[in-house]
Amino acid sequence: IGRAGAMAAAAMVAAAGGGDFSDLREIKKQLLSVAERSRERGLQHSGKWAAELAFALEPLPLSELPPPPVLTEEDARDLDAYTLAKSYFDLKEYDRAAYFLQGCKSQKAYFLYMYSRYLSGEKKKDDETVDSLGPLEKGQVKNEALRELRVELSKKHKAQELDGFGLYLYGVVLRKLDLVKEAIDVFVEAAHVLPLHWGAWLELCNLITDKEMLKFLSLPDTWMKEFFLAHIYTELQLIEEALQKYQSLIDAGFSKSTYIISQIAVAYHNIRDIDKALSIFNELRKQDPYRIENMDTFSNLLYVRSMKPELSYLAHNLCEIDKYRVETCCVIGNYYSLRSQHEKAALYFQRALKLNPRYLGAWTLMGHEYMEMKNTSAAIQAYRHAIEVNKRDYRAWYGLGQTYEILKMPFYCLYYYRRAHQLRPNDSRMLVALGECYEKLNQLVEAKKCYWRAYAVGDVEKMALVKLAKLHEQLNESEQAAQCYIKYIQDIYSCGEVVEHLEVSTAFRYLAQYYFKCKLWDEASACAQKCCAFNDTREEGKALLRQILQLRSQGETSSTDVAAPFFLPASLSANNTPTRRVSPLNLSSVTP
Amino acid sequence: MASVHESLYFNPMLTNGVVHANVFGVRDWVTPHKMALLVLLSELGRAGAQLGLLERRRLNRLLLPLLQGPDMALSRLRKAIEECCPHLAGSVHIRLKLMAEGELKDMEQFFDDLSDSFSGTEPEVHKTSVVGLFLRHMILAYNKLSFSQVYKLYTALQQYFQKDEKKDGADENEMELTNPEELDGKMEKEELAGPLREEEIACSGPLSQKQAEYFLSQQASLLKNDETKALAPASLQKELNNLLKFNPDFAEAHYLSYLNSLRVQDVFSSTHSLLHYFDRLILTGAESKSNGDEGYGRSLRYAALNLAALHCRFGHYQQAELALQEAIRIAQESNDHVCLQHCLSWLYILEQKIFDSCVLLEHSVNKSLHFGLPYLASLGIQSLVQQRAFAGKAANKLMDALKDSDLLHWKHSLSELIDISIAQKTAIWRLYGRSTMALQQAQTLLSMNSLEAVNVGVQQNNTESFAVVLCHLAELHAEQGYFAAASEILKHLKERFPPNSQHAQLWMLFDQKIQFERAMNDGRYHVADSLVAGITALNSIEGVYRKAIVLKAQNQMSEAHRLLQKLLIHCQKIKNTEMVIRVLLCIAELYWRSSCHTIALPVLLQALALAREYSLQYLASETVLNLAFSQLILGIPEQALNILHMAIEPVLAHGAVLDKGCAMFLVAKCQVASAASYTPQKKIEALESAILNLNEAKTYFAKVDCKEQLRDVLYFQARLFHTLGRTQERNKCAMLFRQLHQELPAHGVPLINAFK
């Protein structure tokens, strides 16, 4: 009888199978019922997620609303204890709740019993951390309940008496005990038994570290899988795939879901498509003005674009909603940072860390602030902390590299940049930084490699080519230098950016000289004319034009029409698309 | 506003949002184990005069390691106390039992009573003694505990006690079995390194900062002085990871982890640990010095310098140079001459890998003396001496310089450098071919007491100098034919420098060289050939040389010649004079083996000139032997005898047994050859003396088991006896010759024409 819940869930899977979204009403029904069931078990986040998603769908008529869950004999027996315990649970009196739930047999009550024991352990652990016997004992503080919970749950698991929620809890316990492999298996099982429970999927996301692992999982074939895949692609930085998935979800009818919108915005942020991300976030704010989640990402974007008024508005707004949220602190920190009040910014990042010690972004941001304050040692510390929380935080590695570069230790910072580069092989910023270091160390071959790769993976700041060209210039490789400048100019113009690029004039000047030397008068004069458009090269351009005219009249070549269009060798004008996934550069024999 | 700004500066104690207790300067806190110690101390005070002198001394010896060491299980502690004084162990146990099974107030009472030991006109404990400090630390730490912490401590004590009770009941016998070796009651860390280790880590829990510091310094000094006694790399790393998990700010642990990674030649994790260490250090440096910048600027320089050292250690010379440049630049910018001197020394070491540069080194020595860095200065002097020795500078001047630097060492008690200096002398004497002197120096080092009187038990004996000296010793013994002794020494080396350690390559090379020589003596050329690969891996030049020798022995003359010519050119380029002479000798031998004595002569003369110039005496005598042989064959035995007189003395004094035998054999041959023109009476005398010389040669050859040479000597002797008409002796020699001849395969080389 105890497996009634599991059976019901299994039946629901069958109804929704195949990952198709043809029957949105059915999906809505499932979402509503799972939201209710999650709430009954105190799983607020999963409930919230399901409710949010359900809200995005068309409302159901009364006749189609899901019926209230059927109570079994056991449920009825445990009803009193459950009701009492649930109210204690909601008031965060976990031990008390667990006490009254002892001996309850129904799935719901049993889950709440175990879950309150787990939460009580976690809460005690957190309290203990502050009040331990010594600083070094801190790392030792453990959730004492975990072991017992694991033993009991594994017994039930063997007897196959756990429903989807129970499996989820078992998985959480295993993960907390660092038994990752077992935890993954259990979560996959949980997803099979109760695919509607978002919590299990989310846990799975945290445990999967690469694409290979994902391939070997056997996941239930339901529409929930699409959400999961989209989420994990974002986590694994497979942005293209993630965006595709989200787009198809929107097409299927979830266009109003704030969750999906926010995820898309985050995805655009991750590939640094700032404009798109900004517009999506603005849209999101319109739909859900009191939302605090993801607003830190939004503020990062505003920061990058230096949009002071918008950031200020956002900060004030969030502060009004809830000033003791990590995201709020982060937004305010960004705001102060943009106003160059770095001390205050650091203060707010510290506050964010106090609110949530595992909020890793704040460590990195704090490092940036200390960098701005020229407090390099503190910056190094902050970055190191960020790395400690998450070894794969490329921004912290990059920040460390920058710090040492500021301290004029180009060789020393190579190590850090290399780490960052390994973590994000196709991010041009690390490559350019690496190239600059190698250039400082006079290792020009390596530097050239870096710049070239930076260009190949799609240069964000568009500086790699100029730097490469200058390197070639230094090495007297005029042919290559000219080609690089040509590509650079092409890039700038194809972007259609009106922003005054400092190096454009340099590029034209060099090209003019180059063509002049090669006696390609037409091209040379075209470039020289371009030069005249810039202040710093105007005189030179004019002088060159005069020279060309002189030489031409002397030589009297075939044609004299100067108005030849800007010449580009055909081989170069083919716009090479940046490769997406690349392995890290092997920069030298030693890359520790 | 001011206060806000104060707090803005980074607070190192704030990690993960939780304020560390370190802020209050508490480096130690109360644990159940510490309480057991407190009980022990108070019982000790109570027992007072009742204790016997012997027991008291044993207890005192036990106390310090207990106070400094990591926490241990109660059963272990009791065992340790029992071994010193069973009576006291009993009373400690009873007191603990009363406290653990009683109430919270018993513990509170106990701590209240503790401070009494300081009061009174004649206190039991001095406030500033080791025990007194410990007591006061504990009392302070206890008083700082909050209500819930006190309760937690009490429950921890109960658990601590109960665990012991349970264990006691369950496996009394096992405890007996596992701990028999703790006879002297020393609870030092290395004693735990048995099979007990795993379990011990699990139950020992986190170390307090003091304990951790003690642990780190102990392991670090063991790593430096006697690696075999330190924890195995894997378990040390485990321990360190454990330590870092509890306190990630403990920078020194990262450094030890770097050293540990070096032990196993792990370039990745050692770089990682090193950089991590300096990232952490930068903070503490800035904190400890009020004038912030100086503190961490300094660590920046040394960070770069250490990185250079690391790359150098792993043979990434280019990278090392870049790092070094950086260190030099930063040091120059901040006018840190001391750091600059260190850089200069490293620069020399790096440049040495590429080309010789005396100038740098001389500069370094001068500057170091100027800045009062005796260590660097005399290290520089020693490097200079080494270089000059290779460059063939006058020996007396070198020895003088070494003597001067020795003065410096003794003055500053730089025991490490004294060792290096002696090892250096051993090597130089060996280079000059004075094996007796080398032997004497090697023995001096080995039988010398280390200056580090601080820990008498731990001698510095896994340094490079020891490895060098021991290797030389092994080779010297092997040369004299004491192969058992040599292999004994090598066995010792293997134990002391396990194959993965830094200096292991040295003994590996010497081991193979000795084996090679033996194989060559026995005529097992295929064995020697198989050893060549191993030698080449460790030292390519030596490997090529040995390959040529094998080829020569196998009569593949043209190939050997080709190889030797190549080697000669290479060695001349890198100015390895010793090898040049050896190669020249080898080439000469090839020539005379092909009966081209006239061509061999100029080669030999060239070798002789070189050997004389670089005062490589032994090689010079060997060249003379070769010359004499050529002269003998060319038909001027009188001349040969004349020059042999020059060489025979050093050969007999310093030479290897084999060389001695060859020399005596050659003398006999020359005597016989020159006797041809003598009067019959004189001729008989000459032949008699030749026979005596042959006897001597025979004993030498027998020592190193050179059967081929032995056979030749016997043949020669038999002929001589025959000439003298002493039939009986002749027959005896002939019989011995016959026996040997059947054992050995016949060679194409005619007997008389070979001298080696």
From TrEMBL, chain A:
Residue ranges of TPR repeats: 326-359, 360-393
Keyword Coiled coil part of the UniProt annotation:
no
A GO cellular-component term linked to this record:
anaphase-promoting complex
Keywords of the record: Cell cycle, Cell division, Mitosis, Repeat, TPR repeat, Ubl conjugation pathway
Known pathway: Protein modification; protein ubiquitination
Keyword Transport present in the record's keywords: the answer is no
Q: Spell out the Pfam families in the cross-references.
A: ANAPC8, TPR_11, TPR_8
Q: Which Gene3D superfamilies match?
A: Tetratricopeptide repeat domain
Q: Which domain of life is it from?
A: Eukaryota
Q: List each copy of the Cdc23 domain by range.
A: 26-265
Regarding protein family, the annotation reads: Belongs to the APC8/CDC23 family.
> What is the protein's name according to its record?
Cyclosome subunit 8
Q: Organism source for this protein?
A: Loxia leucoptera
Q: Give the lineage.
A: Eukaryota, Metazoa, Chordata, Craniata, Vertebrata
Which gene is this protein's source?
Cdc23
Automatic annotation (TrEMBL), chain B:
Domain called Anaphase-promoting complex subunit: residue spans: 254-353
Provide the gene name from the record. Answer: Anapc5
Pathway stated in the Swiss-Prot or TrEMBL entry: Protein modification; protein ubiquitination
Give the main location: cytoplasm
Protein name (database record): Anaphase-promoting complex subunit 5
Tell me the compartments it is located in. Cytoplasm, Cytoskeleton, Spindle; Nucleus
Q: Name one GO cellular component term.
A: anaphase-promoting complex
A biological process from GO? anaphase-promoting complex-dependent catabolic process
Which CDD domains would you find in this protein's record?
A: Apc5_N
